[in-house]
Amino acid sequence: MFPITAARCKIKKRINPSALAINGGPKVRLKPLPGRGLLGPEEKAAVDALFDEAIASGEAFGYNGPAEEEYCREFTEFMGGGYADAVNSGTSGVYVALHALNPEPFTEIIVSPITDCGGMMPITLLNCIPIIADTEPNSYNTGPDQIEKLISPLTSAILVAHIGGEPADIKGIVAVAKKHHIPVIEDCAQSPGAKINGRLVGTFGKIASFSTMFGKHFCTGGQGGMVYTENEDLYWKSRQVSDRGKPFGLPTGSTNSIASLNFNLDDLAATIGRVQLKKLPGILAKRRKIVAQLREEFKKLRVVSIPTVPDDTHPAYWFLRLRFHPETVTCDKETYCQSLTAEGMPVNPNYNALPHTYDWYKNRSVFGTSGYPWTSPRYKGDPNQQFPCPNARAAISRHFNLGISESWSNKDVASITAALKKTESVFLK
Q1: In angstroms, rounded to a whole number, what is the distance separating the alpha carbons of residues 143 and 156?
Q2: SS3 of residue 217 by DSSP
Q3: At 186, phi and psi to the nearest 5?
Q4: Which architecture characterizes domain 41-277 according to CATH?
Q5: What are the pLDDT tens digits along the chain (429 aa)?
Q6: Which H or E element spans position 87?
Q7: Which uninterrupted H or E stretch holds 296?
Q8: Contact 266, 224 (CB under 8 A)
Q9: In what order do the strands lie in the sheet with 195-196?
Q10: How far is CA 349 from CA 126, 194, 290, 345, 407, in A?
Q11: Residue 1 has what pLDDT?
């Protein structure tokens, strides 16, 4: 770490840069921001009761048991109806949702560019080709125009991620998909409870996947996920996919119907999930309140702003996307974020979540050294097609992410704005 000096940042009018913590000045946050406190005595009591029952009966709890059934039922109530199948991770959820649609091998699935690897790799594991749609300008999310440009006779599905808890223009995307008779899968790993005009994300497409790992809005322990749909037939197919093709929903006497793996959740995780799901509305409300407080304070700032969202949109805010305005400062975004980090702020300078730029994709490392599915003679598209995604790259370069937590007090929120104001006072032109 190099000290930030007037020469390095080309400061025209230096305003006490030694006050910055990165240069040895006092930190805004003398103590770290509080942890989320996501798990509490309620989860412990529920798990203890599950163990007490198992000990008393002499029977171990497993999966597809009463706790998991209730958890799935309660999740569908949260979603306003439909069907839910609990799985062991968000990545598994994406795979199960895709597989339930049964896309033909060597067809193309259009996918968001900014996503977790687990939101793209399942496409290739089904021997389909990921076609990466750019984001909308100044957004982490893809949009209908970007997707429609890539639709071809080979397109078998569209996989849309709602990144950071901000809903994509899923209404526009679904309208495009319906015009071309293509199913839409929603990846809601970062956005449970996000709404558009009062309607929850995950209810717009044919089927949706959620993540409940420990870092998300609510959890089922270390890992977990959920597959959700309003279509009963897709529900039974997802149940088959998530449990080695067992004949769920099929006539009596049927045997395992398809080849798949075991992606089940279990009753222990579901027990945690049931308690967590009850907390989710409060978690979402607190995060929205914190962002509303920050939005008011950010009106006083020039270097960083909170992007606006449509009036009918209510994000879930897994993190807060911030727009950096380089024309207002005497240093670059990385230097600015380093300074904020030194003050005790949880910032991610570059959300470099572009899986198609990673080694696995560039080296076609899916099935041995075969290069499949791209190199299969059955694939009739361009295996060397490039996806530069200029909007996505520009969005990453112009924004950085602020981690937020429902545990923050008003004083914690005030410390965030204090750090931003302090940093701005040094670097503002």
Answers
A1: 18
A2: coil
A3: -100, 125
A4: 3-Layer(aba) Sandwich (3.40)
A5: 445 554 455 444 456 888 999 999 999 999 999 999 999 999 999 999 999 999 999 999 999 999 999 999 999 999 999 999 999 999 999 999 999 999 999 999 999 999 999 999 999 999 999 999 999 999 999 999 999 999 999 999 999 999 999 999 999 999 999 999 999 999 999 999 999 999 999 999 999 999 999 999 999 999 999 999 999 999 999 999 999 999 999 999 999 999 999 999 999 999 999 999 999 999 999 999 999 999 999 999 999 999 999 999 999 999 999 999 999 999 999 999 999 999 999 999 999 899 999 999 999 999 999 999 999 999 999 999 999 999 999 999 999 999 999 999 999 999 999 999 999 999 999
A6: strand 83-87
A7: helix 267-298
A8: no
A9: 199-200, 195-196, 313-314
A10: 34, 24, 21, 11, 23
A11: 44
Nearest to 324 by CA among 298, 343, 344: 298
CB 9 within 8 A of CB 331: yes
Angle formed by the axes of helices 267-298 and 66-79, nearest 10°: 30
To 10 degrees, the CA torsion angle through 308, 313, 317, 323? -20
- Residue 255: phi and psi, rounded to 5, are -110, 180
Which residues have a Cβ under 8 Å from the Cβ of 417 and sit 6 or more positions away? 294, 297, 298
Domains of the chain, by residue range, sit at 6-35+280-351+394-427, 41-277
Give, to the nearest 10 degrees, the angle between helix 232-242 and helix 90-101: 120
Three-class DSSP category at 108: strand
* Contact of 67 with 61, CB cutoff 8 Å: yes
CA neighbor of 135 nearest in space, from 171, 173, 109: 173
Tokens of 159: 């996989």
Contact 387, 108 (CB under 8 A): no
CA dihedral 346, 349, 351, 354 (to 10 degrees): -150
Phi, psi dihedral angles at 189 (to 5 degrees) = -55, -35
The first and second tokens of residue 88, run together, are 């062991």
Q: Which residue is listed with tokens 């709890």?
A: 61
Length of the chain: 429
Nearest Cα neighbor of 9 from 418, 397, 364, 333 is: 333
Give the CA diameter of the chain.
81
Strands 304-305, 347-348: pairing is unpaired
CATH code linked to domain 6-35+280-351+394-427: 3.90.1150.10
